[in-house]
Specification:
Largest sheet: none
Low-confidence stretches: 1-11, 312-327
Shape: globular
Strand content: under 5%
Length: about 325
Amino acid sequence: MAQAPGDVPGGPPGAAPAPPPGPPYVPVGVASVGGHPTVHEDVPVCAILICIYLAGAISNYTIYQLNRKKGHKFIMSVIMMGFCMSRVGANVLRLVWATRPMNVRISIAALIFTNIGVLIVYIIVLQLNLRVFRAKHPKLGWNRPFRKALTVSYVLLLCAILLTIAFTILNFYTLKPHLKNVAIWVQRGALLYMMIFNVMSLTLLSLSLLLPRAPNSENFGTGSMGSKLIILGLAVFFCIFIAGFRTGVVWAPPRPASRPGWYDTKPAFYVIEFGFEIVIIYMFILTRFDRRFWIPNGSNKPGDYSQVDLDGSTALKTMEHEHDLGSDHD
């Protein structure tokens, strides 16, 4: 007897199709950014990226240790080292995923590591723009309501990270359409906020350039203020490009795996998601951002940036820390 379309093989006629094995469930039929990794295409690329990020981590850590021995503490070098190591982890997971394509838990871990790592760069770029803005406009930059608004922005970013992780996992552990719909809208909202977070960096950079310089403005670190603005302009451009790409992808209608969009291709994924990050990492290393953007430890009011010079004798001076996210610490 011929089986009708939709009948379960080996089951009674008219039976509903069997659900896929799980949870977690393997997404089928829908294109995703970067696609499913393969040994032939992705393993060589991931191996190269692991080496590049490892070199970035070693460079940042070496610079930090050399500076520390001179009494010059710049914590952002350590944070960038941590970011590079997180990217090593993301690429290792993607490499393992390529060799075990049906292991859904590995794919979930790879997606989460890929999605949240770049937030470290977003925060550092915002902090560096904040330093320039406070140096050029101390009264506005150290304004208490402004500092409280910054604290709120960090809390919201933390919420966006946690929601992204939670609903990414939920999307793999449910087949219910309404829960999947909730998951995608939460992810859209979280990524939209991450884009807005980067626009804050652009806003601070624009205000630093456009507003008349305050009479009590100051410089900090080494190099001119113009060189700092150029470096930050490039960093902000790449961060906004990455955040905009991610936001656009998650808000775009899903495409079938047989007809992926250009943004789903592997070149777009590796160039935008990782290539632009690498530009920022090595730009900071080669321009010695550890010296250009150094400020005295615990700076929390106008005049603190220029109170201590960056040299072996005065860089040892410490100041009382203010325990909030609005104050700068190195």
